[in-house]
């Protein structure tokens, strides 16, 4: 693996992520899709069971966190998509406002199992 690839992987995983089930409205070029989110971090999210857009594609995202009616709207960049017939895509948030970031950070913190906790 190249050094650049390792660095990108570390950056993608630098934020704590949690499993979550929520719907995300994803829009691009006047097309809107309702996607299922599999996991979430302060840095982005993963949309499960969807035909991915090409890496580098910019999309608009709109969602509410579980147990919070506040709508979060931001842009995202597709940074990860399986090759071939794989489904799903990883999206990095772009320009997430501080208030939304704080809400996501608090949610992730609440949902992250504490060390030593049994599941």
Report on the structure:
The chain is an alpha+beta fold and 119 residues long. The protein has one domain: predicted glycosyltransferase like domains (Thrombin, subunit H), CATH 2.40.10.220. 20% of the residues lie in helices and 43% in strands. The protein is built from two helices and six strands. It has a six-stranded antiparallel β-barrel. A hairpin with a 2-residue loop joins strand 1 and strand 2. The longest helix has 14 residues. The N terminus is likely disordered.
Order of helices and strands: HEEEEEEH
Q: What is the CATH C-level name?
A: Mainly Beta
Major β-sheet, in short?
A: 6 strands, antiparallel, barrel
Distance between the termini: 34 Å
Global morphology: globular
Beta-sheet strand percentage? 35-45%
Radius of gyration, rounded? Answer: 14 Å
CATH architecture: Beta Barrel
Helix count from the secondary structure assignment: 2
Name the helicity range.
Answer: 10-25%
Write down the overall mean pLDDT. Answer: 87
